[in-house]
Design brief:
The chain has 423 residues and is α+β, with helices and mostly antiparallel strands. The protein has 14 helices and 19 strands. The chain has an 8-stranded antiparallel beta sheet. It has a 5-stranded parallel beta sheet with strand order 3-2-1-4-5. Strands 6-9-7-8 form a 4-stranded antiparallel beta sheet, with helices on both faces. The chain is globular. The structure holds adenosine monophosphate. The site of adenosine monophosphate has 12 residues, from strand 7 and strand 14.
């Protein structure tokens, strides 16, 4: 079987790494990939959003299955396009992917089924939004409706910040069209948790729980990033929360999607706030999380390929998923300046050394090969995952691996999974 993985981050390297273990796969391609995927697949120079070029490549090379990593090709309708060309692809259609690409759409679905989430109002008129702010209890959370690279969510502690955020999003177009409509919602207190589910239109299978660390600096200081680390299982999750989650969130959501005649086939991952009243939905993501995937897949004992195929063919009910009982901790190494303007082109050393460590995986993100060496080529450069009997041992092992990697300006958080140990 020939597979194409679309994307170039740590998540895609982890997907390619896991799929590479599948006996049914003979050959793998990655578009555009990175220096890590190049070790297991042929990288193809096509960007993830160049849909016509991807279709051409898949036809010419007779690819049997395409797996989409990032959200933007989904929002652009890659799955619909592939389906119209009778090409097999893993991921939701454009209309199903609106759960992620439109926060207003997601809120409306949740409201229709009384799915627990923050109370919210939606606005397409900036004056109405500004007026609304006068009467709120702060803090509130202001969200651009559309995709904004994880940056379209602002916590406003007071009315002045709320107003300047509304002006920037709705009048000055800071997030382009994504911010022309907004959601203003209640700030929820609690701790966050990510639950990934494979959804086949009818049935779903939950993956293990995970947590990520979004802020750039230790103790959750500084701006949000794409994610600086993750661990699994989540320390704030248990069987009781899971049954509430299934009963109050997953089942009503799938019911609503069916009513709306939207078949969701792909990976659905609700970001949750675990509050004193149970789990509340913060957002829906319609693809694997990054860096949660780098923590989850090393724990997955089952072959990933049949699970992806069952998701497409709507027979997930015939599958169970086996997990390694051990915990996983993933630490992201970033370039100097990230998440702002960052530098690239720095040679990376220590990769071979870390590659030899048992139950440690090095997932590449912003890397490329130049003149025989691997150099930095993005903001988030590497994600190092270690397994251990407990979160604490996995954490110690992950940081031991991190200490062996060097590149100029490398920075990372020292407290990934630390709260999990302290709590
Ligand atoms: P989202 O893209 O909607 O998940 O938001 C990104 C991040 O903003 C979340 O992971 C939370 O850390 C934070 N956030 C979003 N919505 C809320 C909320 N209603 N209350 C508190 N924090 C939130």
């Amino acid at each position: 079987m020939k597979i194409l993985v679309i994307g170039s981050g740590g998540r895609e390297h982890a997907l390619a790494w896991k799929l590479n273990q599948s006996p049914a796969i003979d050959r793998m391609f990655c578009a555009p990939g990175n220096a890590g995927t190049a070790q297991l697949a042929d990288n193809v120079e096509i960007t993830a959003t160049d849909l016509p070029a991807l279709v051409r490549f898949v036809k010419q090379n007779k690819i049997d299955l395409t797996v989409v990593g990032p959200d933007d090709p989904l929002a652009l309708g890659i799955v619909d396009l592939f389906a119209s060309e009778k090409l097999r692809i893993f991921g939701p259609t454009k209309s199903a992917a609106r759960l992620e690409s439109s926060k207003i759409f997601a809120k409306e679905l949740m409201r229709a089924e009384t799915i627990p989430t923050a109370e919210a109002d939606t606005f397409s008129d900036s004056n109405e939004a500004l007026h609304h702010c006068e009467h709120l209890k702060f803090p509130v959370v202001i969200k651009a409706d559309g995709l904004a690279l994880g940056k379209g969510v602002i916590v406003a502690p007071d009315v002045a910040t709320a107003k300047s955020t509304i002006e920037a999003m709705m009048k000055e177009g800071r997030f382009g069209d994504a911010g022309r409509r907004i959601v203003i919602e209640q700030f929820l207190h609690g701790s966050e948790c990510s639950l990934h589910a494979l959804v086949d239109g009818e049935h779903y299978r939950l993956l293990e729980s995970a947590r990520d660390h979004k802020r750039i600096f230790d103790r959750d200081q500084g701006p949000n990033t794409g994610g600086m680390g993750a661990f699994s299982p989540a320390n704030n999750w248990n069987a009781q929360l899971q049954s509430q989650f299934e009963e109050k969130i997953m089942q009503p959501l799938l019911r609503r999607l069916r009513k709306e005649k939207i078949a969701f086939r792909g990976l659905l991952y609700p970001g949750l706030m675990v509050t004193s009243d149970g789990p509340r939905v913060l957002e829906f993501n319609c693809r694997f999380g990054d860096p949660e995937t780098q923590a989850l897949l090393p724990r997955l004992q089952s072959d990933l390929l049949p699970l992806l195929e069952a998701t497409i063919d709507s027979n997930l009910d015939q599958h169970t998923i086996k997990w390694d009982e051990r915990a996983a901790v993933t630490v992201v190494l970033a370039s100097a300046g990230y998440p702002g303007k960052y530098e690239t082109g720095q040679p990376i050393s220590g990769l071979e050394d870390v590659g030899k460590l048992e139950s440690v995986e090095v997932f590449h993100a912003g890397t490329r090969r130049a003149n025989g060496e691997i150099i930095t080529a993005g903001g988030r450069v590497l994600a190092l995952t270690a397994l251990g009997a407990t979160i604490e041992t996995a954490r110690i092992r992950a940081y031991e691996a991190v200490s062996r990697i060097h590149f100029e300006g490398c920075h990372y958080r020292r407290d990934i999974a630390l709260n999990a140990v302290a709590e």
